[in-house]
Design brief:
12 helices, 76% helix, 0% strand
């Protein structure tokens, strides 16, 4: 086995261990802070967030919004594929940070625009990543897989473990999946968004918080995507 694949396997093992750990005490305590902040956010904001997630899930499953070029058959090795994926992660992190700073600077009303825009940035990244790994996003099953990668990156401890188990056995279980429960999807995503993202809606500090939060959320999504596609790669070639 090539040295890069040995390294990738080690990183995948470490990532699995991290994903199976319980949330830290700080994260659990932050949920209480998030609840307090949520109480200060107008109901209109919560409605916009929920509808944005619903539309994103529906657009992804329908394949009506996110498109990519055909998978690059010239990328043969895992190392070649992941070099380009990591370049994409860096580019999308910068894009998300700039967008978060811009909308965060406008307070709650402009800050609301960040949620659908950030969702779109994340999904476009995942579609491009799938293509770089050689998967055809025109296929319904691949779009469904993308949504599960997203869900794995941003969900509670229990749901994260369930989703990881599904991805581990994707080839065997994909046929039983018809569609994604968008209500559960949006609830997990909203519950995951920590109080830092909620602070982005508050005037005065939104720009700094927005840039920081978006950059790190894309970094986390990128790490999750790489390791999910590594699971499929090693399941296929090991």
């Amino acid at each position: 086995m090539m040295a890069y694949e040995d390294k990738a396997k080690d990183e995948l093992k470490q990532w699995r261990q991290k994903m199976k750990r319980k949330s830290s005490l700080i994260n659990r305590l932050s949920k209480k802070a998030q609840t307090k902040i949520n109480e200060k956010i107008p109901q209109k904001a919560h409605t916009i967030i929920t509808e944005s997630i619903k539309k994103m899930v529906q657009a992804t499953l329908a394949g009506s919004e996110f498109t990519t070029k055909k998978p690059d058959s010239g990328l043969v090795t895992l190392e070649e594929k992941e070099k380009l994926v990591k370049d994409k992660i860096d580019a999308y992190k910068r894009t998300a940070a700039v967008e978060g700073a811009g909308t965060g600077a406008g307070g709650i009303f402009l800050g609301l625009a960040d949620f659908p825009i950030l969702l779109s940035i994340k999904m476009r990244f995942l579609f491009e990543t799938a293509s770089l790994y050689g998967y055809n996003t025109k296929l319904y099953e691949e779009r469904l897989f993308i949504l599960h990668v997203f869900q794995l990156a941003f969900s509670s401890d229990k749901h994260r473990n369930d989703t990881l188990e599904l991805i581990d056995n994707w080839e065997e279980r994909k046929e039983e999946l018809i569609e994604l429960d968008w209500r559960l999807f949006q609830q997990e995503y909203r519950d995951y968004i920590d109080f830092v993202k909620m602070l982005q809606l508050l005037p005065g500090i939104g720009a700094i918080v927005g840039a920081y939060a978006n950059y790190n959320l894309l970094d986390q999504l990128g790490e999750t995507a790489i390791n999910c596609y590594r699971i499929r790669y090693f399941n296929q070639y090991s």
